[in-house]
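User: Structure please.
Assistant: Input sequence and predicted structure:
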Amino acid sequence: MALTFYTNPMSRGGIVRWALHEVGADYETRVISYGKEMKSDDYRAVNPMGKVPAIDHDGVIVTECAAICHYLAATFPDAGLAPQPGETGAYFRWLFFAAGPFEQAVTNRSAGFDSASLDAQKKGMLGYGDYDLTMGVIEGHLGRNDFAVGNRFTMADVYLGSQVAWGIKFGTVPDTPVLRAYAGRATDRQAARDARALDMALIAETQAQP
């Protein structure tokens, strides 16, 4: 089955490339440039939001990083990254926590909006409360568990691990011993290194163009 991966090396597409390498999928990369190409009618036929990443797996189009990650885990079960019996609750809980409260708290704060000064009712409307609460929850969980579902790496850690590692690197996530140790455990894998190397090569190639 043909699998096309739409990405830009300077985007969240790095998460999906890592996931693709974790499951051992054969895929074709289509690099979509920011601006006109990403907002073109042709690409909006793939993702109407006009953003990357996206995949087209033999006619099945999937967008949103967390959704793509789980789709790959479920579609390539031999990789062993989908939840096993007894792990399903924790797997989906922390995958969606990362895609919802965690990412909202980080991106809102990075955009200059901090809910810390809001009253309790307005914080409740946000879904994540405030940044410090959200970071405290994830740090508490990872302080008690090596990975999202306990002691076993799953596809949830591709998404959550990417978010934590990038956040520490760019200063949007607290650089605590617990979070740094988790980021190291999650990303120090051959599939992650291979995926990063490909994206770094694409970035260098793009920057070398006149």
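The chain has two domains: 3-80+191-208, 88-189.
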